[in-house]
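If your schedule permits, I should be very grateful for your opinion on a structural question. I have a record of one protein: its chain in single-letter code and its fold written as discrete structure tokens. Would you kindly read the sequence against the tokens and tell me how you understand this chain to fold? Thank you for your consideration; the sequence and its tokens are set out here.


***
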Amino acid sequence: MYLALGRQKREFVGDKFLSLLHRRLVRLLVGLLLGFVVGAAVQLQQRALFESLTYAVLTGAALIGLGLVLWLFPWLFTRQFGRPWLGWLAAFTLSAILAFGLTGVRASSFASAALNPALEGQDIDVTGKIVAMPQFGEDGVRFRFAVASAYLKGKQVSLPPQIYLGWYSGFGLRHGKAAPVAVPAADGEVEPPEFSLELQRQPQPLRAGEHWQMTVRLKAPHGNSNPHGFDYELWLWEQSIQATGYVRTGKSDTPPKKLAATWAKPVERARQTVREAIFERVDNRQLAGVLAALVVGDQNAIERADWDVFRATGVAHLMSISGLHITMFAWAASLVLGWLWRRSAQLTPALCLWLPASSAGAWGGLALAALYALFAGWGVPAQRTIWMLATVVILRQSGRQWPWPVVWLLAMVVVVVLDPWALMQAGFWLSFVAVGVLFAASDSTIRSKPNTTDSGADRARIHWPNDLNDRENKPETGFLSTSVTSFGAHLMKTLREQWVITLALTPLSLLLFNQVSLVGLLANAVAIPWVTLVVTPLAMLGALWAPSWDAAALAVNALMLLLQWMASYSWASVSVAAAPLWCAVAGVIGGVLLVMRLPPYVRALGVPLLLPVLLWQPLRPEAGQFEILGADVGQGNALIVRTASHSLVYDTGPRFSRESDAGNRVLVPLLRAMGEKIDLLMLSHRDMDHIGGAPAVLAMQPQARLVSSIEDGHELHALRRSERCLAGQKWRWDGVDFEVLHPLASDYESKAKSNAMSCVLRISNGLRTALLAGDLEAAQELRLTANPELSLKLKADFLLMPHHGSKTSSTGPFLNAVQPRFALAQAGYRNRFNHPVESVLARYADRQIRVIKSPVCGAATWRSVQADEVLCQRQQAMRYWHHQPNAAR
């Protein structure tokens, strides 16, 4: 008996010791994982890269240090040593250094293959392979091209391994149908108009895997740089693309030639074939576009109006191959496969003995989700989701119990290791915060069924520090869980999870998108099961049996009718001004507190934490002051003028294609982020690079007056009746005077060219003045300077350079009259007009006028209270992947 008692005591002590060791291992693991994420995030904040050797040294030192930490683990993480937190801090710091170094090594290696600036704008003969499904549009086709060889004037040159090309035509062909579709210039700039004059009308059909020889012109990846705007250059970096350009097919160019049709890209060719079959089968292009997006991941197939409905109702994530979409597909697949596996036990009992049904469902769901993501294009969001699901499944099937923070952080680290730049993407944070909230709200522990042969240490549950909220008998939860035994219970669980995610992610959504849907909870309650269980299976079945697409189209149509009805209400979505990061962090913490299973008085603390992000208002100019923000819209004008309580938009930038313009791509998001309700929209004249974004701005700002020089029969009058801008018009906002200097009433009776009708706006507070000149040309400039009264009013501190710096404007007498300190040249990077031209720049330089170029500066902000400086968004938000154009260009 004494021997038995002694043995039991030793087993108890041994189990207790191993359990304690496991807890300390968990703490060590959390430190390592958290440090890795933080280290990668810090590296992504670098404005410029270090030397690659520096990153290599940091990586090597961190590995050696981590080896010492692990070797000294028994001493560092025991209280006998005195300070266990020192071990945790050492692990965290060294892991952060390791992530910093590894990310820097990868970035340096990739940056070393960048396009040589000397090759920009040159006609280069290239041969290579189309590596992805081409994207067809109304202006032509865009595709990714892997370069095999490149020659410039007969001499071989080095190009980046992969480039992004456009083959333009004057009209749209989509899968053999005359159905125009918008594939906007991804960088937000208008492609040179002369392309359509010299390109053949119908480019040959392109298919993934084909080898081609063609002449191209390239440029460095360059996108618009605006506050709260889409980072196109980061997107290209993540896609491993280091140059963009277009195919030359003019009369003097060697015609593109297909060298061979291969099966080198079978998945991409299959995707293209299925996409074409969908559009052949479904006549309604709107419905066919949604099906193509769900089956093959062609998000460009969805029309812009439909995207507006999806965003207003909060279901946009379901209409693209997003993380949540793939996760829901994996969950549904695991349920079906698990059910089939259980039923197979009646025929072959050995199957369930060899592999439990829950495990079969989990692994099968993961495999099918991976195949789905691969067929849908294997985009970066899809890859992140598959790696996250794989991590969760592996941990769940490992035979141990894991506290949710370890699982959550490990999945995050796996994604960061594969793609560190995912930390800069909104989808990454939405996905992981949603998963973390669900874990925290349910106090989940990822585990598999207990094994009766495990040792005492294995049976001991691994707890989060302090053993809070221990529930030994808690049922399994998770995305791939099959523990729900009744439809009612599952429905309630799903509704609760949707409510938890909606409440917790609202502050984060407001930070990332400055918009949240008030009908999103109800819309998702209907759309998630409908899209996941009805639309998507029917759409995918259509690849095997085409009539299934007809049923899928009917299902999509029914959903669209419901969503359009929900989106029709003005209160369907709410927009707020962009709040600083601390507001969003506080808001997310508040949302998490509200949904966690905590005492009511603790959960109530979440309410005040939500208020900053909901009530935040950006600072405005003081009374008597004003500011001008020149948005970066490429080749075109668009400026936002703000006083203490009023706002004006001067021009709206270019239209890129039928469904894409600077209004919906730049100005609408920018105005939403700034929390602006504009009082007046002034369009200087009718040229498309000045009014292209007007419809989108007018739709967003129903209260705004429209003032312009457009003719009476212009199509914009159908959206809102325009008032004429006339010289002599004046008004005063918050101590700031506004006056129109041009055109005259008599100009409307003449048949002057559009540039000659430009509305010229003078803004002044008595001390500082700005002059917005549109596309004013030499004749009109001289007329203004010849008038003694107007000539005195031309003097300004800030000038919007007339006609983007064309040689037909910015005459000497005009510049002598204005005498600005700064002149803003809003022009596209490497635009075909070479705006601003060198001769004009020389005139400004002779008068010591500082020229601010949009490609170099990005969005430019000038304030009357700080008239001696212009703030440039490209410099303020610079990261190492951003293009830095030559300021002299």
User: Anything to note?
Assistant: The first strand starts at residue 124 and ends at 130. Residues 806 and 835 are 6 Å apart (CA to CA).
